[in-house]
Amino acid sequence: MMKKANKRVIPFFGLSMGVTVTMLSLVVLIPLASLIIYTSKLSFSEIIATITAPRVVASYKVSFITAFIASLINAVMGVILAWVLVRYKFPCKRILDGIIELPFALPTAVAGIALTSLTADNGLVGKFFAKFGISIAYTKVGITVALVFIGIPFVVRAVQPILEKLDSTYEEAAGVLGASRVKIFWKI
Questions:
Q1: At what angle do helices 140-165 and 108-119 cross, to 10 degrees?
Q2: pLDDT tens profile 13-71
Q3: In this structure, are residues 77 and 153 in contact, taking their beta carbons and an 8 Å threshold?
C-alpha cells in the first residue's frame, strides 16, 4: 500500500510562519520585554511617581476624553449610517458603502498623514475653521476626528447585519397604528 504524501494547503507555511514570528518579535515582543526589564529595575515609589507625573496624567486625560467623545459620535453616527444604508435606496449608495471601508483599506500612517494635512491650518478643511480661530490638527479635536474616522466602520459593519434582518412589517404596523418615526426607531 502506498503512503499518501502529506500536502500542505499553504505552500511554504514553515517559512512564512518563521518570518511572521520574527517580525512579531522585533516589533512587539522585544520592546515589551525591554519595558518590563526597565520597569523591574524601578522601586514601587518610582513606578508610582512615573505614572502619576503631570504629563503622563495629562496624556491619560486626553486619551480617555477623546476616546469617550469619539465613541459617542461613532455610536450615533454609525447607527444612522447603517440605518440609511439598509433602509433607503439612493444614487451613489454603493459608493458611500465603499467609503465606509476606507479606514480599513488605508494603512494607519497614511490615514494619519492624510487627516493631518486635511485638518492643518492650511489644509482643505483646516483652512475653513482657521478663519474662525479654530485649530483642528494637533489638538483634542483632531484626535477625536481621527478616532471617529477609524472607528466608524466598526460600528456600521456591526449594526448593518442586524438592521438587515429586522422585519420591516413591524415598523409598518406601528406606523399604521399611529406611532411616530422616533417612537418606531426606539421601540421597534
A1: 120
A2: 888 899 999 998 888 888 899 999 999 999 999 999 999 999 999 999 999 999 999 99
A3: no
Write out the three cell numbers for 158: 456591526
Secondary structure of the chain: what % helix, strand, coil (to 5)?
A: 75, 0, 25
CA distance 156 to 183: 22
Phi-psi region of 48 (alpha: psi -120 to 50; beta: other; left: phi over 0): alpha
Q: How does DSSP classify residue 53?
A: S
Rg of the chain over Cα atoms, rounded to whole angstroms, equals: 25
CB within 8 Å of 155: residues ≥ 6 apart: 74, 75, 77, 78, 79, 82
Contacts of 130 (CB under 8 A, 6+ apart): 121, 122
**Grid cell digits, residue 183:** 417612537
For the entire predicted model, the pTM comes to 0.76
85: Cβ–Cβ under 8 A, 6 or more apart, which residues? 93, 96, 97, 100, 156, 160
CA distance 6 to 2: 12
Distance CA 142, CA 134 (A): 11
Q: How many CB atoms lie within 10 A of CB 37?
A: 9
Q: CATH top-level class for 55-187?
A: mainly alpha
Compute how many other C-beta atoms are within 10 angstroms of the C-beta atom of residue 16.
11
